[in-house]
Specification:
The chain is α/β, with parallel strands linked by helices. It has 5 helices and 5 strands, in the order αβαβαβαβαβ. Helix content is about 50%, strand content about 15%. The two termini are about 30 Å apart.
Amino acid sequence: MTLEEVVGCNTTEKKMETVNQALEELLAAAQRRDCLTVGVYESAKLMNVDPDSVILCILATDEEDEGDIALQIHFTLIQAFCCDNDINILRVSGMQRLAEVLGETNAESNGSEPKDLHCILVTNPHTDTWKNQALEEVGSYCAESRCKNQWIPYISMQQR
């Protein structure tokens, strides 16, 4: 391995860790502000009514979801809509960690239906300008990825 490869690997790994942490902070902050829409159908409805309020679309899957054709079709349509409306998109794996970050791990034990975490929208109401360092970090990562012709960046949420 050359020095460039070692330095490049470390830089990429640190960047992914930073973005991962920023995403978790962003989700927690958006949830506190009631700026999250959770679920494929709920997200599609919101984007149809008010696409300008959406600032980030998170599409989450794990390996077992890769064979779900209906979900993949929904993702394709949502991705196309987001690209047409200049909405940042992020593909994420690690549904269990995502559920932990959103406090959804006890839903089944409480007797309530678990939420569909496959699509999550972060919104910003038109009446409010929301400044958040984590949002800027995730947005910057999405923009950098587009510059590298990776239109839909991917991160893996790691268990802690």
